[in-house]
Specification:
By secondary structure, the chain is of the alpha+beta class. The protein contains 4 helices and 6 strands; from the N terminus they run ααββαββββα. The model has no long low-confidence stretch (mean pLDDT about 90).
Length: about 140
Amino acid sequence: MTAAPPPSRLQIAHQLAAHLGHRDFDKVAELLSPEVTYRVEGNHVLAGRFHGPEEVMTHVQEVAERTGDTYDPFKWDDWLVGDQHVAALFRIRAQGHGAVFSAKILVLFGFDSADKVSEIRVFFDDAEGADRFFI
């Protein structure tokens, strides 16, 4: 019996995108490179640059807490696959502090030679809305 092939970078990016903002911390951590950098654009409390799995996991936990575990990537619009990067365009919905936030976001995943995620960049189509929601 042959072993199953390793997951493709697209599959890895899809798994990670599905778990961001949730409490599946062990599932997120196993996909990350020891040198991962996570950058969230904007001027809100969750914006910034996070380096290393520990900082990234702390950030993912903060997203889950601030949205009361309601962060939901509910519609995948498109996936762009390159040699070193995968980009995901999807719609999210989240609730928190009596408000609802819906937006389209672009997440860029970069990979190292071991097929671990070494870079995550998050861009909101409505940056001002994100700034207002993530207070």
